Amino acid sequence: MDTGAIVAKLKERFAEAIGEVLYPNLDPxxxxxxQNFREVAEFVRNDPDIACDWLMCITGxxxxxxxxxxxxxxxxxxxxxxxxxxEEEPPGPYQVAAIYHLYSMKHRHRVTLRVVMExxxxxxxxxxxIWPAAxxxxxxxxxxxxxxxxxxxxxxxxxxxxxxEGHPLRKDYVVQDTYEIEGEQVRVPRGW
Amino acid sequence: xxxxxxxxxxxxxxxxxxxxxVLRLEVVTDxxxxxxxxxxxxxxxxCFEKHxxxxxxxxxxxxxxxxxxxxxxxxxxxxxxxxxxxxxxxxNERVERLRVVFAELNRIASHLMFFAxxxxxxxxxxxxxxxxxxxxxxxxxxxEVSGARLLYNxxxxxxxxxxxTPGMRERILxxxxxxxxxxxxxxxxxxxxxxxxxxxxxxxxxxxxxDAIAYGITGPMLRASGLDWDTRRDEPYxxxxxxxxxxxxxxGEMGTVGDCWDRYIIRRREVDESIxxxxxxxxxxxxxxVTEAIPRNVRPPEGEVYMRTENPxxxxxxxxxxxxxxxxxxxxxxxPSFCNLSIVNHVARNVLVADxxxxxxxxxxxxxxxxx
Lengths: 192, 372
Description:
The complex is a heterodimer.
Chain A: H1 3-13, E1 18-22, E2 29-32, H2 37-46, E3 54-63, E4 95-103, E5 110-118, E6 123-125, H3 134-144, E7 148-150, E8 178-181, E9 184-187
Parallel strand pairs in A: 2-5, 6-7
Antiparallel strand pairs in A: 1-2, 3-4, 4-5, 8-9
Chain B: E1 8-12, E2 24-30, E3 33-40, H1 48-52, H2 61-65, H3 72-87, H4 93-122, H5 126-146, E4 155-156, E5 159-160, H6 168-192, H7 195-201, H8 209-214, H9 220-224, H10 231-234, H11 260-282, E6 303-311, E7 314-322, E8 330-334, H12 336-341, H13 344-347, H14 353-363, H15 367-371
Antiparallel strand pairs in B: 1-2, 2-3, 4-5, 6-7, 7-8
Helix pairs in contact in B: 3-4, 4-5, 4-11, 4-14, 5-6, 6-11, 11-14
């Protein structure tokens, strides 16, 4: 089944939870609402026409608000430079996204689901019960981006030490000053 | 007086000859049998994904090599193919063929390293030196072509950094025919059908096909569990659509389907397939310039792509997100060893500690990939 047919089938079952399809020419991603994500994931796995039994990867993505820059118009020598007040556009919301790359061994098609959440307190249902491969991938997304997966059996840091502060893959991450090793505060090196 | 039994926590610490890198396994044992295994990773975490956001696309390539340091050509291949797909860039046939030749040579080198270290794990010390003799010849080829023995920085987005040196093509073919094939047959006599080796590895650590798909296992481990899936044939990229090769699948010849011996024999047979692939690519290699399509500034259009390639350890996937500038916004590497290692708790139930070493060796993990 191609992506159009899969999206149609999903929309027929979950009308309001399915959003648009991003990047249709390259690797289509279906935007899914965070509240209903668990039902959509179960449907994608169990429905015999979609049957995505293989979770390839879960990617955590930090989406800072897009700053809309206005290019100044080119001025000729005679014109006086005109002072135009810059347009005050409010920046978009700061979001994080979790992208689930799924594959179906039976039908040999790919489905990519994208869940976009608010950056302060991102929560989405865990799919570790549906695909056991998700266990470690969700721990990594929690560790590096800070997305909390509700219902995960053991959500703790996997790559960084357990008492590390912050989530490094966020765009405004600043590394902490000191780290405690055996009771002493050791300075964290900051590069050159 | 009643005997008191309790479970013991055994630490196979980050420094251990059999954990293939800095991996800490917290093993809870009941006597000699294992109850649970908790792997602790992160000792080699170098935040490659954060670094990649500050580099240009070509500058990410040395970082990408250092993930799976035993198969660097394959790491670079996956990344370069992903960025070229994002850009819609096509390369000429000489580049495609040479990329496949070096990726397959590195697959052979990585599998030789697997034979060496797996033999050492179960107690055989001679295959280590025999495999390294052949691996040394391959590393000499790589050094002559790219300048480095292990971390090459050789593939570029749009081509390769340098062309083959004169006479290299004949040297590779000669090496395959006169040295590698006879030595592989000797290795078969020594290790593969050795009765002690079979007793150590057959019927140990069996992974069924459903478990393998559920846990995201890929590569030789998935094929050993009976599933016929190879990314080179089923989602082909680069020059693979024009090549003919067989995919070895585990049949449980010495024990059950999906045990450690199956995982070993799949990798042994893959060496033969790689030799055949290299011969097909070098046969009829056209002339050309390998650097002609390398753009001066790599600026892919805005987009996100997830591209997967077949690493010796499994399926290496790259998620690359670009916003039109010279630096990628996000590069995520889906490492095969990361997913393969997550099954160790499920598999190592009620086995002896010595069997845990055999199972861990057959997963063929590289901690550089697991931690990135």
